[in-house]
Design goal:
heterodimer; A: seven-stranded mixed sheet; four-stranded antiparallel sheet; B: mainly beta; six-stranded mixed sheet; 12 strands; globular
């Protein structure tokens, strides 16, 4: 397994456009997380999936943001009507279901969004 | 609300020397975990070390060790024999057993001088 994969690595878009990011977690990990990181700051939690169920959402996740994990494998994060304030690195992470590593997150390299 | 504070935006250390990064947190939970993650420039975040709050013994991983002071809600990271490859952003993070989310501090940039 090659770890957590995110695509695209960098997306430049114009204000008002929609963008979608994809995350492929480690195959045996049933827990998946999305975080947002702005320059010089620590990552901020956006949402959490256990299998296909979205169990927790941050209030940071406005109505323009939607995340899915339809079959409990890959996940997508869509941002509609992008704003310049959405410019950030979007990080995906996954962790195994139980045991010592259940809360040890493996992060992907991130998808950097630039909104012009 | 739980918060994590890293008061040192940047630290510098001479290669082969020891450096300590500070972290404090605030929580009313009794069951939680603390972490240090490393984020090298343009590379993904990786786990450095993990500490369970119920364990009194400080965690160690090779050159990395922590000083966990539960009563003071302090969780510092000591890096011994610093190497050039240790240069990165270091994030302190907190996870409560009652939640799914990891809460991060704002990070400390570590510079290693050759």
């Amino acid at each position: 397994d090659t770890g957590v994969s995110q695509d695209p690595r960098h997306k430049i878009t114009k204000r008002g456009q929609n963008v979608t990011f994809r995350c492929d977690p480690i195959s045996e990990h049933n827990r998946l997380y999305w975080y947002r990181q702005t320059l010089g700051q620590g990552p901020e939690f956006l949402t959490y999936f256990q299998n296909e169920a979205q169990l927790e959402k941050s209030r940071l996740l406005s109505d323009r943001f939607s995340a899915e994990r339809p079959k409990g494998s890959f996940s997508t994060l869509e941002i509609q009507r992008t704003e310049q304030g959405d410019s950030a690195m979007y990080l995906c992470a996954s962790s195994p279901p139980t045991g010592y590593g259940a809360n040890v997150l493996t992060f992907g390299a991130g998808s950097r969004l630039t909104v012009l | 609300a739980q918060t994590v504070t890293q008061s040192q935006p940047e630290m510098s250390v001479q290669e082969a020397e020891t450096v300590t990064l500070s972290c404090t947190y605030d929580t009313s939970e009794s069951d939680y975990y603390l972490f240090w993650y490393k984020q090298p420039p343009s590379r993904q975040m990786i786990l450095v070390i993990r500490q369970e709050a119920y364990k009194q013994q400080n965690a160690t991983e090779n050159r990395f060790s922590v000083n966990f002071q539960k009563a003071a809600k302090s969780f510092s990271l000591k890096i011994s024999d610093s190497q050039l490859g240790d240069a990165a952003m270091y994030f302190c993070a907190y996870h409560a057993d009652s939640s799914y989310k990891l809460i991060f501090g704002s990070g400390t940039r570590l510079l290693v001088r050759p």
